[in-house]
Amino acid sequence: MLGVTLWRLLIVAFALIGVIAAVQQDGNPWPGLSLQASLFTAIVYGVLMLWPLFTLGRSHEPPSAWIRGGTAVLLLLVMSVYMTLLDGDLSETWSLFEHLLTPLVVFADACFVGASAARMKWWFPFTWVSLPLAYLIYYIADDLKMYGGMLRPDSDKFFVYVPVLLVVTIALGFVVFGLGKLRGLVATSAVTPGGGQAPFGGPAPQRWGTAPQPGMPPAGPQPPAGRPAPQGGQPYPPQPVPPSGGFPGPQHLPGGPR
């Protein structure tokens, strides 16, 4: 649990470094999606970092990975758009953290850290679209003019780029979902079988009343003559050891020895 907390402290530090460096570089970077996504990440992972305190140590993360997956998809979208449609320059500290380092560590956390990643639902990728859509609503409502106007409804680019970005967001969501599920399957297959389970590569232990061994009657092993069958699936008690030599002792017929 301490390792997970320290890891998420690192994510918070990465996100805040990007935010602080962006503010120092540009006096008003707040309308940009890159800065807002990093600030959102710092808040989300600050809460996740303190989650063990909220639950008094009973768990180190919420039972659902929705918020972690959604944050990862949002940052991956920021990174993808910046690297392909915009200038993609990572020479500045703020850009390096906002567009590369923070997205990568959050992506790794969403897919490979914690048990909740394996419990993602198949429909999560469709709902994660709500995060970039919230920014789009803000962009239109505040009449922003960044990103070459491709997010402005009065531009011809709007009806080209927005549907493409929504499809890319869903695709990135399924990448996060698939890797989280794969990690869960690998972790499950690596668990050592417990008592009563078959060891890897070996046959399962047999119990009375289960599938018969080859050559046995369908009803399973039968008790020897004159002995009651054991109850509750218990094994038969050991039979008495014959006298020395492996042969039965002398038999006495009724009336005494002759």
From TrEMBL:
Composition bias, kind Low complexity: at what positions? 200-213
Q: Which UniProt keywords apply?
A: Membrane, Transmembrane, Transmembrane helix
Spans through the membrane: 35-54, 66-85, 97-115, 122-140, 160-179
Question: Which stretches does the entry tag as region Disordered?
Answer: 196-258
Composition bias, Pro residues: 214-227, 235-245
Q: What is this protein called?
A: Integral membrane protein
Task: Supply the source organism for this entry.
Answer: Thermocrispum agreste
